[in-house]
Amino acid sequence: MVNKLKRLNPQFKNFLKTSSKSAKRFGYNIYLVGGAVRDLLLNRPVFDLDIAVEGDAILLVRQIAKQLNEKFRRHHSFGTATLYHHGHKIDFATARKEIYPYSGSLPKVKKSFLKEDLARRDFSINAMAISLNKKNYGQLIDFYQGRQDLKNRLIRILYPESFLDDSLRILRAVRFQQRFTFKIETKTYAFMKQAIGAGALKWINPHRLRDELILFLDEPNPYRYIKKFYLLERFNFINKRIKLDKEDFKFFIRAQTAIRFYNKLVKNEKKVKYWLIFLTGILLNLSNHEAVEVVAKFGFKKDERSTIISIKKGLDKIKKLDKKLKASAIYKILSGYNQEAIIFFYAYFSRKKIRSNIIFFLKKVSGQKLKIKGKDLQKIGVESSSFMGEMLKEIFYLKLDKNLNTKRQELNEARNIIKKGG
Ligand code: CTP
């Protein structure tokens, strides 16, 4: 296992050494736990780290942060602290025994030790640890046969009530199963079905469900995930009226292709929320009113809500793109939509003309800006500010349609408009 730790990037390795030394000074034992251990064993890249501390995690992180001159955030009620190191998120948690005051609630935290901490986790493959302590640095600690399950490609819970304690694990089981193309172990599957049947997904805080749903839909190529989950639970937990048919599943496949295509076509700094495209696809057969209720209940952000609703409401308008149009007409139809919506429309409509107009918009129209400003119009005698706004708009459309490139061409158009009497 020492070798596996060696596979980490140098920044992580140095970080772990520093943490290990600090912990020793406090007399604490610390361990790398959870997804990072699993991913190291699977030879997959590791982005974030979870560290369990047999001691006071917040005290330890304060010390490490000071030493490395890094910022950290503490969450007192959970006994956890998060530190950002070279853009990686590193969570420290007091090795703990979680007590769920009632099913679906957030856990209350009591200090205890590693074995119990691992026992409360979701699946055996996520319940392994690697010692970061001098006496056995790098050694794998595997109380619950996680390594065996990794070899046998199995998702297995650690205790029968696991899905009832935390029904987010239903979504997580499908997510990991699909991500690694594993199998959900037979008994685990039965417990999962039982928990679904008992309505466990309804007991949970909707905001926690939302966050897990986002992770679920944000996996690369989530079509398979959606299909599997639909067969299992039908997304009843979102709304009982959700219904997905063959066409919807074809849409999810097309959306995956559309995302790849979009990424090749548009070099973008802004992070696209791909999951929104799939979520909107799932909500498509709901009425706008029902969709509004869903996004409110789960507390999606304002921009996310408006993306979903604007896509649902915009489908009819986009049909207008199914003919040869001037650039300005394409602009008028598409300019109000964000990237998620544009990708959605491209995937949703397979009509050639609609798609080529969308591509034209992305390639030639969406990045365009006028070179002239209001003050240039003032100089040629335009005074009224409302007229100025109208004129700039008009010149912008002409710029698109006539492919104007220079400021002088734009000013000429302005003069023509004035000559014609506005
Ligand atoms: N965990 C859990 N039950 C949950 C969520 C998390 O037991 N509902 C535990 C698991 O041990 C998990 C760890 O907390 O490995 C960290 O959670 P998270 O970061 O969500 O999971 P990762 O396994 O790191 O998943 P990913 O690869 O998607 O980041």
How would you portray this structure in words?
With 422 residues, the chain is an alpha+beta fold. The chain folds into 4 domains: 2-152, Beta Polymerase, domain 2 (2-Layer Sandwich); 156-237, Hydrophobic Seed Protein; 243-365, cca-adding enzyme, domain 2 (Orthogonal Bundle); 374-421, no CATH class. Helix content is 55%, strand content 11%. It has 21 helices and 11 strands. The chain has helices at residues 2-6, 10-26, 35-41, 57-68, 114-119, 146-151, 162-165, 168-180, 186-197, 206-217, 223-233, 246-265, 274-282, 288-297, 302-318, 327-334, 339-348, 352-365, 374-379, 385-402, 407-419, and strands at residues 29-33, 49-54, 72-75, 80-85, 88-94, 96-99, 108-111, 129-131, 140-141, 154-155, 183-184. Strands 3-4-5-2-1-8-9 form a 7-stranded mixed β-sheet. A two-stranded antiparallel sheet has the order 6-7. Strands 10-11 form a two-stranded parallel ribbon. Helix 12 packs across helix 17 (339-348), helix 13 (274-282) packs across helix 15 (302-318) and helix 15 (302-318) runs parallel beside helix 17. The longest helix is centred in the middle third of the chain and has 20 residues, at 246-265. The model has no long low-confidence stretch (mean pLDDT 93). The site of cytidine-5'-triphosphate has 11 residues, from helix 8.
Helicity range = 40-55%
Count of helical regions: 21
User: Could you state the CATH homologous superfamily of the largest domain?
Assistant: Beta Polymerase, domain 2
* Unreliable spans: none
CATH class designation of the largest domain: Alpha Beta
Biggest beta sheet summary: 7 strands, mixed
The CATH level-2 architecture of the largest domain is identified as: 2-Layer Sandwich
Structural class: alpha+beta
Overall pLDDT confidence: 93
Please compute the radius of gyration using only Cα atoms: 27 Å
Percentage of residues in DSSP E strands: 5-15%
Which ligands does the model contain, each kind named once? cytidine-5'-triphosphate
CATH topology type of the largest domain: Beta Polymerase, domain 2
Extended strand count: 11
Strand order of the largest sheet: 3-4-5-2-1-8-9
